[in-house]
Specification:
Layout: H1 3-19, H2 22-28, H3 33-47, E1 52-53, E2 60-61, H4 63-91, E3 94-99, H5 104-116, E4 121-126, H6 130-136, E5 142-146, E6 154-162, E7 189-191, H7 198-210, E8 218-220, H8 224-232, E9 237-240, H9 242-248, E10 251-254, E11 260-268, H10 271-289, E12 293-295, E13 301-303
Parallel strand pairs: 3-4, 3-5, 7-8, 7-9
Antiparallel strand pairs: 1-2, 5-11, 6-9, 6-10, 6-11, 12-13
Helix pairs in contact: 1-2, 1-3, 1-4, 2-3, 5-10
GO molecular function, one term: transcription cis-regulatory region binding
Organism: Streptomyces qinglanensis
Protein name: DNA-binding transcriptional regulator, LysR family
Amino acid sequence: MACVDLVSACRAFVHVSERGSFTVGAAAARTSQSVASRRVAALERHFDELLFERSSRRTRLTPFGRELLPAARRLVLAAEELQHEAAAARRRPVRLAVPDTCPAPALARLAAAARGHRITLELRTAAPEARPYLVRAQQVRAALVAVPPDQARWRVPLGLAGLDRPRARRRYLETLRPRRTDSAPPRRVWLQPEDDVPHIRDPMVRLRDAVGLRPAQLSVAATLTQAAAEVFASQDLLLCSPLQAREFGLHWRPLGELALERTFGLLAAEESDAERLGGRLGEEIAHCLGAGARAGEDGEESGA
């Protein structure tokens, strides 16, 4: 007899024994009299012993039934406790650390989609260097973390965005090289904290040096807000995704000399959490990150 069938049979057995009637006991077990009878009969065949002395007036336990009843009650109670714990576990929030660059509407859609999979998400935004620590410290169960390109599950295209609308389809870093005749301060490229990681920062530094820019022309801002403010107040450029450019009303173009991407993976304390979140919510996570998006000629986001 399968384990689930054994529990159902014991439940019918317990209710019938407590009420002395298959009809009344079946009602207490929330099943029909015929189903309760079949389950008890299956239990009797399983143990090769009768559990009840059946008569037209009353159903009485056999000596074997009286011996078995306490263990059957324990099994039914244990099964009910297991069901309760399973329901509580499904309701328990799964804390997920995400980049603070994720738009609030996209995060709300992610949390709503999770409910459709019976997952309650508790989202926590954090800086790139903090997210792996939160997993290791067990403050969250999983985190979207920056990973090298060859380990990426999600890829976010990066380019340069500014207030001006360039005619060219790409922005080249070499066009920012200062000239002797320039009277204005040299234009800078601002990196936000999310891109202050080796596989993005280091190629940008090498390109800066290769095209002859000054060291200060590539700067890392303390926050995305600070970086965007610098761009709004000048002719500086922001290294960002098409989605971010759209949010700030900036004109985005791919970088001419480099193909840069933010590359993300899912870090979790338990591999099962990574598989569940990534497998069921991968598309919504991609939307939050801006993965797979590109910008058209007017800077508007479009599908890849």
